[in-house]
Design brief:
319 residues; alpha/beta; Rossmann fold; 9-stranded mixed sheet; 14 strands; 34% helix; binds iron/sulfur cluster
Amino acid sequence: MSAILELRGLEVEIEGLPILRGVDLEVRPGEILGVVGETGAGKSMTARAILDLLPAAATVSFEECTFGGTDFIPPRARQLARGHQIGFVPQRPRGSLNPVFRVGKQIVDTLRRLRGMARTQAREEALNLLRSVRITDPERVYRSYPHELSGGMCQRVCIAIALAGEPELIIADEPTTGLDVTIQAEILKLLGEVIAEHNAAGMLITHDLGVVADVCDRVAVMYAGRVINLGTTVEIYREALHPYANQLVSIAGSLDSGGTPQEIPGRVPNPGDELVACAFAPRCFRAEDDCYGEEPPLVHIGGQMAFCHHPLTSEAVSV
Ligand code: SF4
């Protein structure tokens, strides 16, 4: 099945410092791809590069970038897709809504801008969108200001706004950050449901591998500005090839079972740090001399791919 979004060799530099170092990934029709990694891995930068939302100081280049088969490299193409073909669900929903306008007006304005609706028609559609994100009293929420709503309710409104342009892809950037733990699961479940109901695809960006298990079909694990392991959610959970992904799975598992929160020793490299051949080597329990001196090869097994000299299986074959 051909991908709806495909990008190869995405590089981003900000003021000369490399942030993304050749990101390759694709989102297929109807799937939700989880993009996972610690803070600083480059997940949000990847989303912002796709939407041309990076600061002016950023230099962006792609080897290849297509959306629905059309060239997506020109910044104008990515700007025009925002809201239309690609809906965006932000971190910190309250801060992304305009505090001085009622929620209803913000949805109506979005519908008029994206779909050219008359005001009366847009009002009806705004209420439908609020119902579609499981808001049981849409009239009240429509009349509310953001500060009158809970964080979870604000995120439902942001999801409704992301759906307003009838997008083919929804990118959600850490959509549960700052929300109460009990609300986080509801928001993730809602995202999965509305993406399916609207026949869209999704890209869910999160630092928490635990949250992707119930929602995502495939997972891309990022480290130091690259995708270093990619596979189906089941494969990554059962037998991640890459030691970094494997440790993230262990940490997520220990948290799920109520264990003490653990961390991978060491820290994520900062932009501009001098990197050895495998950027994860200083933190890796399987590192050997070749990891410091030679670029890790791309290995495949089943539906999984990883960049690693010593993947966690004997069946992996280098390509
Ligand atoms: S290449 Fe070496 S250091 Fe890097 S993840 Fe694989 S085993 Fe660890």
